[in-house]
Amino acid sequence: MRYDLVIFDNDGVLVDSEPISNRLLAGYLTELGHPTSYEDSLRDYMGGAMHRVHDLVLERTGRRLPDDFDDVFHGRVFAAFERELEPVPGAVGVLEKLAADGVAYCVASSGSHERIRVGHRKAGLDRWFDDGRIFSSQDVGRGKPAPDLFLHAVGRMGVAPERCAVIEDSPLGVQAAVAAGMDVYGFTAMTPAAKLAGATRLFADMGELADLLAG
């Protein structure tokens, strides 16, 4: 393995949550008088922290979202996770390979710690991620596309940025990894390759990732 640390985004990379959360986000924003399609949500919010939703709505409409917006939204998302969430096909195999080879890995997600843990538990990934391997945008001042979260993760893991590979499926995440000085592998299962053009390498099947990282 040519990297000392592999950093995974969570939503859409480890857990197949993006269709669920963006469907619910679009619906809730529309309910509140901010008409949003599923495609709009993917374009504007996929890969971003919750403050991005608040910031964009305020910027575009001059109206603030309700104070309980995050709590209501996450309640809906967590309930849907319990019914629907699955791991991304191939993700378990990648984690098994990294663990077997003794390669350090972690997750650095725009989602909250609670969202990460709920998703991992439902998808059966919690055994792969102890507290020391989970980093959230809650831990830093600025979420993706700022590099802060990735730099925080490598600082805690004790690895130089240039020795890291980031696995991302959103344009915001790719931008953040590039800004952090890291190689980034763009996962195109849900995102058109053209939108991840800044990535070091693109791939469409998570089952291919271990070989790509070793190549």
What's the shape? globular
List the secondary-structure elements in sequence, H or E: EHHHHHEHEHEHEEH
Distance between the termini: 7 Å
Strand content: 5-15%
How can the largest sheet be summarized?
Answer: 6 strands, parallel
Round the mean pLDDT to the nearest integer and report it. Answer: 96
Poorly predicted ranges (pLDDT <50, ≥5 residues)?
none
Query: Would you report the number of β strands?
Result: 6
Structural class designation: alpha/beta
Count of helices? 9
Estimate the helix proportion, in percent: 40-55%
Q: Roughly how many Å is the radius of gyration?
A: 16 Å
Strand order of the largest sheet: 3-2-1-4-5-6
Notes on the protein architecture:
The structure is a single chain. Helices cover 45% and strands 12% of the residues. The protein is of the alpha/beta class. Helix 4 (69-84) packs parallel to helix 6. The radius of gyration is 16 Å and the shape is globular. The model has no long low-confidence stretch (mean pLDDT 96).
